[in-house]
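Kindly inspect this today.
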Amino acid sequence: MKTSAFLALAAFVAVALDATNAATPSKKANPGWCKSDDDCQKEAKDYVCVSVQTTRKGAEQVKQCLPYKRDGDVCASTTPGLCPSFSTWSTAYKSISSVCAYIIPQSAKCLNGTEEAKKGYVKCLDVKDEDDKTTGVIYGCVDFDGRSLLFERGQKADKLARKMNYTAIISDNCVNPKNEQGSDVVCSGRGTCAPSSPGQMDYKCACNVGYSGTYCQKIDSNKCTSIAQCAAGICNLEKQVCECPEGTTGDQCSECDPSAGDKACGGHGTCGPVTTTPSANSSASSNSTSNSTSTNNNNNNNNNNQNNNQNNNQNSGSNNNQNNHNSGSNNHSSGSNNNHNSGSSNNNQTPVPSPTSSSRRLATQNVCTCTDGWTGTQCDRKPNTKMTSKGSRAAADADETTPAPGTKSSNSPAMAVSVPAALAVTFLAFMN
């Protein structure tokens, strides 16, 4: 059940955005964008509006609906959790890599351990940096560009992040070393880099539904709960499955359709079959083969058991020790036959998976080969980066310029940073 704290947050965000006279962005270009929790409730029950702090050009006030039923479902307050994914948003947003990180409240003060809740104060976690200095923090979603968390330079949270060595921690634990050169994508763009428990720095990838693996690199199913998590198309929140647009197919819409012509690979690449390495990402394929082998073993076991029974019946006059000896011999033979027959069956028969099996996808997967300057599953990302005049990295943006959620300048990201703090402050005011 959604807590009153998130209800308070919804009211605060609505007032704040109205004050900026922000233009309503296109939800078609950015599915799941929200202005408040009320927007999310129109999409599906038990969804809330979660913001992501970033200074990427053209990506201001980034907010998206995420499922929330209990503490820990989303990254907020004093509990780490999931952040939004942007696989199906317009190009300026696709490179956003979500990290659940420490944020220092800007519009509130932290309560100490003995203080009761009061207006203008928020419950915080006390953490120590490398200088052994204690700081009160809360959790919030922040973008990572491969070099640093994208706080506004000079903010207290930015300084703390540098002292906490976030860059090395994220790079070592949440960036797949098999990523293409220069890629800054965290958790394959399919999850959130987050700590396992409050107050800890043991970061790892928390994968969206439908994905698994150390870096969320494996696709398990077509199931989804985040509207923008599929490689293409959108997640039908009512059915909780990815619905693929023309040119894409497969679980999570991760494959391309070679018969779709220019509509495949976003018009920025070519679609064709590849042979994948089973050890790289094929647990489903292994399971299919294992099931086939298991069937052969069971058949052989049944035959051997029949032989055992016949032998035992024929030797009923023998003593128990002899029966046991025969049974053991037959079992030994059964094991040998199983191994031999299983191997023969596997050599002579190729397991035939169901049409929706992941093993089919792995064996005959159609993937995009992107043209220069484009990357991503559907060749819809521009990963190149450049240095800004201020010395911080920004996305080398796409040719298209889609209106960002809100029109507030990226030089004023304080609103996004203060949202988690505002959540608690408004909640306390509401309670008082």
Summary: The chain is about 30% helix and 20% strand. The first helix runs from residue 4 to 19. The longest strand covers residues 134-143.
